[in-house]
Amino acid sequence: MLKQGGLVAFPTETVYGLGANAFDTGAVARIFAAKDRPSFDPLIVHVPSLADVGRVAFADDPRLPGLAARFWPGPLTLVFLKRPELPDLVTAGLPAVGVRVPGHAMARALLTAAGVPIAAPSANPFGAVSPTTAAHVLEGLGDRVDVILDGGPCTVGVESTVLSLLGERPLVLRPGGVTREDLEATLGHKVEVRASSSRPVSPGQLERHYATRTPLDLLDGPAPARPSAPGRIGLLAFAAPPDGHGYAAVEVLAEDGRLATAAARLFAALRRLDALGLDRLVAEPVPEDGLGRAILDRLRRAAARG
After folding, report:
1. Among 82, 185, 198, 294, fewest CB within 10 Å belongs to which?
2. How far apart are CA 42 and CA 201, in angstroms?
3. Per-residue pLDDT tens digits for 89-114
4. Secondary structure class of 143 (helix, strand, coil)
């Protein structure tokens, strides 16, 4: 299907992707149409191994071997200058491309069997909550996808970290499944984060994104015992519901208090709350370190107005 210009939704360890042959401009255009995605928002290209990065990018960077050895396959996207044969539509006309070697066995098997790099954003309508199961893909995109591969629930649950290697100092363009602390330990120096932009140079940089249909507010601290606003309110709690809670529905992200558990459950929990027809959702913050930065990044964008 990929070789024929079709769209294939496939699992990765982060979220499900909506894939097309990265060298087929017509197929890539179908991704944008299926998602109602604006053409100024670039796509990530997935390859099966480090050796394949050079097919789409100029990747002669001394930092690449160390980063690849530590984080690939896995939830890290690296940004390099793109090769001219890669269609401009993939990169939204930008001179650079984000490349990733995914860690999910089914994704890598697909890439190897297809024999082409796969351009793939998340497999959901643009701006909506990202899919972490095949059922989420079917619910959001339906027959806009030619094939949906079911690889079970995603284990990481938030998108990949996007790290630009275009400058002398690496720059995080999107927090994700690889923490800033781990990047800094590997690179041996501090890493700057610049994650929002009205004109994205990386996926996931728009100020409003990952949004539920039900309005969502991000709380400043732990949820009160009862909601402060009238109506039927749903709560996204971090580790435990409040005592004697008066919420219409509660989803707990991590009874064990682990950020990795919270990240893996985040999007599915938001989807369940969003499906209940409530008046409003409120979300507790999580600790802003490690994977907590990626979780808070998604919640802040989901809560943004406009």
Report:
1. 198
2. 7
3. 999 999 999 999 999 999 999 999 99
4. helix
